[in-house]
Amino acid sequence: MANIVSDVICTFCGTLCDDLEIELSDDGRKIKEVYHACAIGAEKFLHSQAEDRITRPRMQDDDGNWTEVSYEEAAKYTAKILCDAKKPLMYGWSSTSCEAQSVGHEIAEAVGGMVDNTATVCHGSSLIAVQDVGIPSCTLGEAMNRADRVVFWGCNPAHAHPRHMSRYSVYPRGFFTGKGSKSRKVVVVDPRKTDTASLADAHLQLEQGRDYELLSAFRVAFRGEKLPDFVAGIPKDQIYEAADLLKSGRFVIIYFGMGVTQSLGKNHNIDIAIGLTRDLNDYTKAAIMPMRGHYNVTGSGEVLGWQFGFPFCVDLSRGVARYNPGETSSNDLLIRDEVDAVFVLGSDPGAHFPISSVKKIAQLPSVAIDPHLTPTTAVCKLHVPVAFVGVEVGGCCYRMDNVPIESRKVVDPPEGMLTDQEFLTMVLGEVRKNKGV
Ligand code: SF4
């Protein structure tokens, strides 16, 4: 009989699918097949088994040559660069467990670090808007069971969250949506003809960066007031029609992504999208939800919130937590030359930050803690490979709708490899020794 592990959580994207089945070899050491995951989710599990995987920490010299070091040496180096720095940047956190995040934040507090996560380049603007005006939201389960009007604004789940539509938003049969996709009308707002847009009942192909105007126009259209002939390049009749479609639903859910959080207007776009959702509640039930990318970026905001009161861009350099996105955000700090060491865990700024920031990281004492080889590990002085959360070690993760889900261990990590929580605990011990506390 096949050796199958069921109800496995996919720790790739913020959908955190929890229905995977993994077939193991008879001795339980190798992953043979991954069932129910999308292509990217399956690849995460299979890739963890790669023959050429780096399994020990490595230091890079000035000529780009790598030398293997022990985890103890790696922990000492990491503690030293953090303790020596006046203002170390501790960035990432979104692809690891809440338990590891919490140990990392203890280190940050001890060394007076700047703690920031990947929201700084994706949904940070959503977090600011939620602090400004609150958010009427719901869980993905509620949306699956109730939502008969689904809006995807500036997001493309067909590619970024491949099972979102089949598990929650469009295709599944829910309690009040018994005919699956036939129970729902889908509206996509996107300047591009995406694969998600090709499935929609209505695609509003607005002009790039004019989301704020179109969101305002919807609020006007809900009240039946007059609109100009075109708003954001969309004819007014199309806007009235889409507004009526939403008002006629029993439950509207608006999912939004980086197309609206990182385009012109940023957090103000989200402020008004939340205002629009509130307006819709005068006619029907409506909720709004960010499409979070990394599988535990939501958890990072939660853990930072419990520990310091702010979800990203936390400055601990003055002994108390400060928060001022735009000043205390990673790229602003790097561009202004304000940080003197860089620690990266569970993210890849080398791939996602502007090249000027990546060059700064390459010039500073730096460490990247990551199971993969990435553009970030290539520029950092120390690379510490760790076990894959959700594959080789369990841990708590938060789905995009703020529901905590306990991920599972499926196989053992390579012999002698530490988890990121174990490595961070070693670093914390070294930091305490250095500080004499
Ligand atoms: S949709 Fe996301 S969480 Fe689900 S299987 Fe694909 S990558 Fe994994």
Can you put this structure into words, describing what you see?
The chain is of the alpha/beta class. It folds into three domains: 3-47; 58-122 and 295-435, Rossmann fold (3-Layer(aba) Sandwich), CATH 3.40.50; 124-290, Dimethylsulfoxide Reductase, domain 2 (3-Layer(aba) Sandwich). 36% of the residues lie in helices and 19% in strands. The protein is built from 17 helices and 21 strands. The protein has helices at residues 39-47, 71-84, 98-111, 124-133, 140-146, 157-160, 164-169, 211-222, 236-247, 258-261, 267-280, 297-308, 330-335, 349-352, 355-363, 375-379, 420-435; strands at 3-8, 20-24, 31-35, 58-60, 66-68, 88-92, 114-117, 149-153, 185-189, 202-204, 230-231, 234-235, 251-256, 285-290, 314-315, 322-323, 341-345, 366-369, 382-384, 395-398, 404-407. The strands form five sheets. A nine-stranded mixed beta sheet has the order 5-4-19-18-17-6-7-15-16, sandwiched between helices. A hairpin with a 6-residue loop joins strand 2 (20-24) and strand 3 (31-35). Helix 4 (124-133) crosses helix 11 (267-280) and helix 8 packs parallel to helix 11. The longest helix has 16 residues, at 420-435. The radius of gyration is 23 Å and the shape is globular. The mean pLDDT is 97. It binds iron/sulfur cluster.
Keywords for this structure?
globular, 5-stranded parallel β-sheet, Mopterin_OxRdtase, Formylmethanofuran dehydrogenase, alpha/beta, Rossmann fold, Dimethylsulfoxide Reductase, domain 2, 437 residues, 3 domains, formylmethanofuran dehydrogenase activity, binds iron/sulfur cluster, 9-stranded mixed β-sheet, oxidoreductase
